[in-house]
Every structure is written in structure tokens, then in C-alpha cells.
Amino acid sequence: MSKGKVLLVGTSYGAMHMLLRLKKMGYSVSVCGGIESDPCHQHADESYYVDYSVKESLLELCKENIFDYIVPTCNDYSYNSASYVSTKMDKYFGFDNYSVTNILHEKELFRQFTLENNLPAPRSISKDNPAVNKFSDLPFPILVKPNDSFSGKGVTQVFSKDKVKTAIDKAESFSTDGKVVLEEFVDGTLHSHSAIIQNGEILIDFFVDEFCTVYPYQVNCSSLSYKLSSEIKIRVSASILKIIKKLSLKDGLLHTQFIAKDNVFWLIETMRRCPGDLYSELISKSTGFDYLDCYLKPFLNKKNPKKFNKNIKYIARHTVSVAKKMILGSVDYAVSTESLNIVPLVECGRTIKPAPFDKLSIIFLEFNSKEELMHGTPKIDKLVSVHEIKI
Fold first, then answer.
1. pLDDT tens digits for 207-220?
2. Bridge-based pairing state of the strands 46-48 and 28-32
3. Can you name the CATH fold of 123-184?
4. How many Cβ atoms are within 10 Å of 190's Cβ, its own excluded?
5. Which of 76, 210, 218, 299 qualifies as a cystine partner to 152, CB 3.0-4.6 A?
6. Residue 114 and residue 111: Cα distance in Å, rounded?
7. What secondary structure does DSSP assign to 256-322, as a single string?
8. Which strands form 142-146's sheet, in the order they lie side by side?
9. pLDDT tier at 313, thresholds 50, 70, 90
10. How far apart are CA 241 and CA 202, in angstroms?
11. How far apart (Å, rounded) are the C-alpha atoms in residues 268 and 170?
12. Matching CATH topology for 5-92 and 189-388?
């Protein structure tokens, strides 16, 4: 007998491991997503071909059907729309009020929140602020970002005032709400922090080193962090706990990207949905911790255990992408098969868009030591060769 009916909001490859886990847990799983060829449509108990990025469309679907639970997948549209539905219907588990979701997921509102609560973050200004034409507080270079886009789409680093208008136009084209944020450029190393929240506290958290070696604003290499000092980790966790307390966040995941340099750090962005590109598998393979299970449980009205066993392995994750448009011929991986796990995403002969738009595969590579991991992770792209078909 089914434990209940779950609506999984998302149907791409990134949602497949959630679909399979939910079915293994004994739930009946329906999925919604507008692309009929997506893999989850082939394996779900029920499919709805609905564009969930349109909040009202998802709300209508949930009003017309009986779902016991809603689970967002690995993109902001999925989580934001599901949070909107939960708030409107006063139903479902694991979601903050939609107003809180907006604070965490919209760059402009999050920057305002960090400023008001004395949290370390880059200075920023909205495109609509009258001071935007003066740039009195933001020395060049600056970053121009869409307010609500993800995966680094539409982001431009600008070095002079005469390039700002072009960068704003580009950012607007990637923003669903038409808003643009101009942000102080901070230099340092990129990292992520994943915290599992329970009863208003951090139950367990993880730090990851991240690298962008193809497209400058999209992470494609990562591993557990051995670069960050214990002091920085303590202070980052304290800042995240402050966010949890100030916003009274519900149980679940809070994932944050930040930049660090020496003993200083800046919070860049936060999210409550599962990070993409099989981030959950990076944590699980590296530590033995069931990240996916802990992500899913709050949406199913379940508590997470208070104790976890860890088994550290030196695992790196790499998302294979290309810098130019091409027709995919083949991919070579210059590493031993014993230490390599490959998750293919596209087939031979397909036209591939340059990063950050298309991804060819995700690979997990095990190193023999912490030192090899730290040295090798940002260089994995040198071990991968993508060959194109020329017509």
C-alpha cells in the first residue's frame, strides 16, 4: 500500500534520483514538467505536462488534484512555485511562507536582508535605484546580475561605466521579473555550505570547495573543503544560524554559496532547494551521509535522525561542458576506470550549447589522499576531452 501521493515538481535528469528514492520509500509519485521527453515522465506513476515555472499553473494543478506532499527538485522555479502553492493553499510540509522564500531566493531582497541584519555580503544596488547612474558606492569592476536567475546565466563583470547599459540589458533578458542587481565584485575562493535544519538549529552541515573552469559564474568542479580554516567555518555557520533564527526557517536544507579570502568571507546567495548536478551524490560519496534522504524528509512530514555515521573518501565532482557550440562526437576521460563514475546526460550527435546552457555528463573521481584531491579537483577538466562532429 502506498504511503501517500507525492507531486515531484520537476522532470529532468536531476529529479530522477528523487523520483526513484520516493518510489523506493513506498510513495506514489506524480511528476509535473513541460518537456515531454524528460526522463521522469517515463518512470512516474502519473505525469502532468505543466510549466511549473508559472506559479498559478502549479497552483491550479494542485487545486484540481489531491496530493499529500509536494517535493521541489533542483532549480529555483521548482522551489519558488511549490512554496507559493503551499502558502496559498495553507497546505503541505517543509515550506516557509512565500515571503520568506522570496527573501532567500531573490538577490535584491537577500542583499537588503544581509544589510539590515549585519551579515557579511557584497554591497549592491538595484537597477531601479536613482543612484545607479552614479555608482558612487560601487567601484569597478562590478557584477551585473539578473535578480532571479540561477546557474550564472546573464551575469556580466563590468569594468567601466560605458558597458553597464549593455550588461543590464543582458541581465534583464534572463530575469523573469525584469529586475537587475549591480553588485560589488569580491575576489577570493568560492565555496558552498549545506546545512540541514531541524527545530531551528543546524543538525549537520558540510563545506565544499567550488571552481568555475569553463564558464566563470557556473561551478563545474567541486569537492569537500580542506582549504577553509576552522575559524572561517565557525563564522560562516554562525551567520547561517543567524539567518535561520531571524527568518524562523522550517526544517530542511539551507544551501549557501560564499566567497572567502584570508579571514574574510561574503555570503553570495542562498537556496532551500536541492543543489543541482548531483550535489547530493558528492556529499554521499564523500562522507556516507544520506544527503538526499535528509533533503526529502521534511517535505514528507518526517524528522531526520540526530546522529550520523561518516566515512570520508576523497571524491571530486566534475560537470562536463564546453566553451563553444558544437555537435557532440565523443568524450574521452583520461583516468582509470576503477576510480571513475560517469553519469551521461546527452547522446552522440546532439548539438551542444556552450556553458552555462548545456552539460554533457557528470563524473565522480576518487583520489587517494586529501592532498591529491585539493590539487586535482580544479584540474579535472584537463582530463576530459570533448570531440565534435564537423559537417
1. 999 999 998 889 99
2. parallel
3. Dna Ligase; domain 1 (3.30.1490)
4. 17
5. 218
6. 5
7. EEEEEETTEEEEEEEESSPPSTTHHHHHHHHH---HHHHHHGGGGT-PPPS-------EEEEEEE--
8. 124-126, 180-184, 142-146, 156-158
9. very high
10. 7
11. 20
12. no
Top-tier CATH class for 5-92: alpha beta
Distance CA 135, CA 344 (A): 45
DSSP-derived letter for residue 136 is T
Q: 142-151, 197-206, 262-271: lowest mean pLDDT where? A: 142-151
Predicted local confidence at residue 253, as pLDDT? 98
Where are the chain's structural domains? 5-92, 123-184, 189-388
> For the segment 76-122, what is each residue's pLDDT rounded down to a tens digit?
999 999 999 999 999 999 999 999 999 999 988 999 999 999 999 99
* pLDDT 10s digits, 123-174: 888 766 545 554 446 888 888 888 776 667 888 888 888 888 888 888 888 8
Residues counted in the chain? 391
Residue 259, C-alpha cell as written in the block: 566567497
Q: Report how far residue 7's alpha carbon sits from residue 192's, in angstroms, rounded to the nearest whole number.
A: 28
Closest residue by Cα to residue 331 from 358, 367, 369, 366: 358
Bridge-partner residues for 183, per DSSP? 124, 143
DSSP codes joined into one string, 45-78: SEEE---TTSHHHHHHHHHHS--SEEEE-SSHHH
CB 341 within 8 A of CB 363: yes
Structure confidence at residue 128 (pLDDT): 61
Bin 383: left if φ > 0, else alpha if -120 < ψ < 50, else beta. alpha
Strands of the 5-9 sheet, one edge to the other: 46-48, 28-32, 5-9, 69-72
Q: Which residues contact 196 (CB under 8 A, 6 or more apart)?
A: 202, 203, 204, 205, 252, 253, 294, 295, 304
pTM assigned to the model: 0.92
The predicted structure's pLDDT at residue 149: 62
CATH no., domain 189-388: 3.30.470.20
